[in-house]
Write a structure and sequence with these properties.
It is a single chain. By secondary structure, this protein is of the alpha/beta class. It folds into 3 domains: about 5-170, Rossmann fold; about 180-340, Rossmann fold; about 405-520, Up-down Bundle (Dehydroquinate synthase-like, alpha domain). The chain has helices spanning about 15-25, 30-40, 45-70, 85-95, 105-115, 125-140, 155-170, 195-200, 220-230, 245-260, 275-285, 300-305, 345-360, 360-370, 370-375, 380-400, 415-425, 430-450, 455-465, 480-485, 515-520; strands at about 5, 30, 75, 95-100, 145-150, 175, 185, 205-210, 235, 265-270, 290-295, 310-315, 320-325, 330-335, 495-505, 505-515. β10, α11 (about 275-285) and β11 (about 290-295) form a beta-alpha-beta unit.
Length: about 525
Amino acid sequence: MRPIVLWGPPASGKSTLSRALAQRLGRPRIDTDQELAERHDCTVGSLFERHREWGFRQLEHSLIRELMVRPDAPVIAVGGGSLLDRTVRHEVLERAWVLGLSVETTTLFARVCAEPNTRPLLQGPSEERVAALVAQRAEAYAECHATIHATGPLEEIVHAIEQALAQCEREDVVAVPLGSRTYRVHFAPIATLARRVASLSRAPSSVLAVTDRNVLAAPGVLGAIHSLTANEPVVLRGDGDEEKNLSTLSGIWDAALATEFDRHAVLAAIGGGVVTDLTGFAAATLLRGVRYVSAPTTVLAMADASVGGKTAIDHPLGKNLIGSFCQPSLVLCDVQTLATLSARERVAGLAEVAKIAAIGDAVLLDALEAQAERLRAGDPDALREVLVRAVGCKTRFVAQDEHESGIRAALNFGHTLGHAIELASGFSLLHGEAVALGMRAALGWGVRCGVTSPALQQRLDSLLTALGLPAHVPGGLDRAKIEAAIRRDKKRTTGEMTVILCDAPGSFCAHRCSFETLFAWL
């Protein structure tokens, strides 16, 4: 059970609504302003005056972090500026359900005037000043699990909050916090996709679905497409990376433009990583950018490709060399669609989950080891559990480094050699299989460099084996082709390569080495 945090502008009703919600749910209720005033035996205004805003925020942050780990999971009303600090806000998003309250500026102003001298940053307010404060904080207020319009009868608002909370819990919602471009990942039936797309903040003028012929056989997919749009979907052959090229991309452009697409239209990617990459890249380039939503239908796409906004096509000289960053507006994961995957495809996708666990989440690593047999067998409950956690972990990297200029590069663990092997195999190896081989190589390289302990190498090797992932590079691959692909890797600089290594469970470091040193070891 997670704490519930109500957040929004000053006078949006957090205190009143938190009291009613806590009573309805039978949980303890805490108002951070009230708690701070009681602990320091003075008013919030006095605290603010004594410590200034910076010092007051430090007191708030300390209290909020304390509340996040309380076992009774309270309902918490936080001050309008309590979560403006990005680090604290993202910590709270991981640990609690954050429900944003939205109220019109005119109503906020009237409420502020009715309670004079209670809000340190709005002394002698004007409606323009209230509007300016809300606008200044809008990017932060958008980062929540759900937004509730908090105007109207109290009972109706509380009911709306309860419904939003129930959906978050039922669908294991993960918020990808990117300011006004924040989107949510829902684990829910694909049959609900049309309703969700229609309720986007700006209703789509039209929708075009992109899928492949294999995905159409998955439960509910065809019906979901028919509910989503009257346009005929773009159906790829389902030949994997062989289709990640300019010709296929052009086919999506042609189909969209033939339907008189405008900038309010939406592309819907329903399929695996190839479909997601192609659709996202098409969305980034059509009319200089339209929205897209993603309904991933493979383990690989749910864990990795559908979240984070990396889109691309392949080039004969390398994988994913032409692309862009384009974040989706919505992600919907229906684990029931995984039932139609072959055992090989399902297991290959688990490589990306293992990668995220190895470099970012020791708890997920423990879960993978404990449930390896169930995961290998395709147990939907086990798959959902690890996928929800994997998405949450990847979200942390994306939120800190959206365009992979720093820490997000850790998600390339195993990919440097993996992409090269995948290309050299003519894509006869699945992406996850090649990444697993790349991870094994990176573990060996880490031991050689003194970064990875032999015990950790053995632990992660054993996990990959338990999940059913390959341990040996197929014979007959062209070494020169592998080396050439590594030299063209996106993470290279002149004469050197950055290799991501695992230095502890759930932890990583970046290691620089020359191509010659790496090739000699390989």
